[in-house]
Design brief:
Number of helices: 12
Shape: globular
Strand content: under 5%
Helix content: 40-55%
Mean pLDDT: 77
Structural class: mainly alpha
Strand order of the largest sheet: 1-4
C-alpha cells in the first residue's frame, strides 16, 4: 500500500488489504494446502489498476533499488511456479529483524498481523530448512584445513542468529565435509540410500497419522502440545536421567526439553519402536549441536 496522494486513500487501501486477507485466509483453509504468503515492502508497481497483477518487467517501475527489484522478481517467480518450500541458505546473511519474524509461525503455526483497528491471523504451517557456515571463512572445525578467522569473529558471526530463534528449531546438525572416497564408495559400502530413507520416513508418518487420528488438527509428533502428552512420550528411567544431565550441563530451556522429547519419539518411530529407548534420547540430544557450542 503506497500512501502517496497520487494513489488510493489510506481508508480505501486498508479496506483492500482487509479484503485480500479474508480471501487469502479462506483459500488457505479451504484448500488444505500449506501456503506461504510473501509480502515485500520493496515490491511496488505504479499501475496495478491498469496492468497485470504480476508485471513481466518492473525494472523501470521499482522505487527503491535494483537489488530489491531482483529480489522481488525472484519472489514472483516462486509464486508463479508454485514453490512454497524454500531453503534459507546462508542464514546469518539475512537481517536479524527479518529472521525474528519467524519465531511466531515456527511455534504457533500462524502469523498474526495487527494494526491499530484490526488484527488478522493467517495459518502458517511450514517446514523451515536453513544452512550456515561454521564461521565467516567456513573452515572452523574442518578436519584438514585451518580456520583463518580472527578472535571473536566466530562468536559475532554465530550471534547473528538469536537464541530464541534457535530454540524453536527442532534439529541443529553440524555437517562435516564428505571425502571423495565416501562419495564414490557409498553404494559399495551398503549404506542406506535416499530411497530407503524415504520409505522409513513414510512409514513413520503413517504411524503418527494413525496415532493422532482422534486429535483434531494433529498429524505428527511435532504438532502435539505438551499438555497432550500420553504414554507414547514416556521416557525410560535411563533416558530421563540422561536428559536431566543434559538440561543441567547445557542449561537447556523448557522449549528445548520439549523439542528433545518429541524428536526422541520421532526417532523411535523411524526405528519402528513402540517405546522410546535411551539411544533415541541420546540421538535427540545430539541434534542440539548449537546449544552445545554456545556453552563451549
Amino acid at each position: 500500500s503506497n500512501r502517496s496522494t497520487h494513489y488510493y486513500s489510506v481508508e480505501v487501501m486498508q479496506e483492500m488489504m482487509l479484503e485480500l486477507g479474508r480471501i487469502t485466509r479462506k483459500a488457505i483453509l479451504e484448500s488444505g494446502k500449506r501456503v506461504v504468503v510473501l509480502a515485500s515492502n520493496s515490491l511496488s508497481h505504479r499501475h496495478f489498476t491498469t496492468e497485470s497483477d504480476m508485471p513481466e518487467d518492473m525494472s523501470k517501475e521499482h522505487i527503491t533499488s535494483h537489488a530489491m527489484h531482483l529480489w522481488d522478481m525472484r519472489m514472483i517467480e516462486y509464486m508463479r511456479s508454485g514453490q512454497s518450500q524454500r531453503i534459507i541458505d546462508e542464514m546469518p546473511e539475512f537481517k536479524r529483524s527479518v529472521l525474528e519474524v519467524l519465531r511466531q509461525p515456527l511455534e504457533e503455526r500462524k502469523i498474526t498481523i495487527s494494526r491499530s483497528r484490526w488484527s488478522v491471523d493467517y495459518p502458517s504451517n511450514f517446514m523451515l530448512v536453513a544452512s550456515m557456515n561454521p564461521c565467516p571463512c567456513g573452515y572452523h572445525n574442518h578436519p584438514t584445513k585451518d580456520c583463518k578467522c580472527p578472535p571473536g569473529s566466530i562468536s559475532r558471526y554465530m550471534s547473528k542468529i538469536s537464541g530464541p530463534l534457535l530454540d524453536r528449531m527442532d534439529i541443529h546438525l553440524e555437517v562435516m565435509p564428505v571425502s571423495h572416497d565416501d562419495l564414490t564408495n557409498r553404494i559399495k559400502t551398503g549404506k542406506e540410500t535416499s530411497e530407503e530413507i524415504r520409505c522409513r520416513v513414510i512409514k513413520a508418518r503413517e504411524i503418527q497419522l494413525k496415532r493422532y487420528e482422534e486429535l483434531k488438527g494433529v498429524h505428527c509428533n511435532a504438532m502435539v502440545a505438551p499438555n497432550k502428552y500420553n504414554h507414547w512420550f514416556d521416557l525410560p528411567t535411563a533416558g530421563q536421567l540422561l536428559l536431566k544431565s543434559a538440561m543441567q550441563k547445557l542449561n537447556l530451556s523448557a522449549r528445548a526439553y520439549d523439542k528433545i522429547v518429541k524428536l526422541s519419539r520421532t526417532i523411535a518411530d523411524l526405528a519402528q519402536s513402540e517405546d522410546i529407548k535411551i539411544e533415541h534420547v541420546a540421538e535427540a540430544i545430539h541434534f542440539r549441536s548449537l546449544d552445545r557450542e554456545e556453552r563451549i
